[in-house]
Amino acid sequence: MEKILIVDDSLLQGTALKNILIENYDVYMCHSGEDAIKEAASLMPSLILLDVIMQGINGFETLTLLKEQLFTKNIPVILITSLDDAGNEEYGLKLGAVDYITKPFKSSVVLARVHTHIQLYSYRKAFETLSMMDGLTGIPNRCYYDEQSESEWFRAMRDESPISIGLVDVDFFKQYNDIYGHPKGDEALKQIANYLNTQRRTGDFAARYGGEEFVFLLPNTLGTLAKRIACDLCQGIEMLGIPHKASKTSVITVSIGGITVIPAKGQSYDKSFKMVDDMLYKSKKNRKE
Fold it and tell me: Half-sphere exposure of residue 258, counting CA atoms within 13 Å on the CB side?
């Protein structure tokens, strides 16, 4: 079931909303704006019902913070409030709320509006997912990678945990296309992409970076393990046995460059990725020698 987070400092009001929704949704509750920020980032619900008048930071302030956070900015928020004047409603919508429900609320109205926004969110996510998949290989594309790398980078920075990044390049691929033709080259890329995707652990991420290059992210993974994973990938792709006359091994091989880093505040992901690219260049050079 889709997850909904109710944020209300009134246990009575929050429970009333929960009772309306619990038959159709997986409903969670918290009672302050501060807790809402943490819970939303952890749960990643499909919808947040947010009371405006609360002690501590109010609903408008909470909404602003949610929209500023990388992990929660796209979660739809419906404001729940007794403030029924047009000025407050306009203000909430300008801050990024998708709808506004005034108290006292009717069960039928709550259900209808929640259903509508859950559906819209589901459609949007499905479209975004489709647009972020590589048309040839069926794995995530560069656009998806850009989004995921930003998300994992800031998560690692927040948790002070390591993240390993790897860039994979198919060796002598131009020669492969020259010898076997581009349709065969496409089939080879599909096989390699499928291998990378099926061999990744839960929580890891693999994508087509462009051309014959692929990229992977290994969250919370130290360098020793990341190096072993990279070596296993190289060996596994070679063992696919895709014939390649121009290769020293007579089959397709790949080179991998990678680093492991614990991101510090202010540290640039782009600069770290440049180091990955440099490591790949050295790996490719060793292949040619």
Answer: 28
Distant-in-sequence, close-in-space partners of 262: CB < 8 Å, separation ≥ 6: 156, 160, 161, 162, 163
SS3 4: strand
Full-model pTM: 0.66
In three-state secondary structure terms, 146 is: helix
Q: Which residues are known catalytic residues?
A: 212
**Structure-block tokens of residue 216:** 């992977």
**Cβ partners under 8 Å of residue 260, min gap 6:** 162, 163, 164, 165, 221, 222, 223, 226
Q: What does each of the 289 residues of the chain score in pLDDT, given as a tens digit?
A: 899 999 999 999 999 999 999 999 999 999 999 999 999 988 999 999 999 999 889 999 999 999 998 789 999 999 998 877 778 888 999 999 999 998 888 999 999 999 999 999 999 888 887 889 999 999 999 999 998 999 899 899 989 999 999 999 999 999 999 999 999 999 999 999 999 999 999 999 999 999 999 999 999 999 999 999 999 999 999 999 999 999 989 999 999 999 999 999 888 899 999 999 999 998 887 766 5
Which residues lie closer than 8 Å to 149 by C-beta, 6 or more apart? Answer: 165, 217, 269, 273
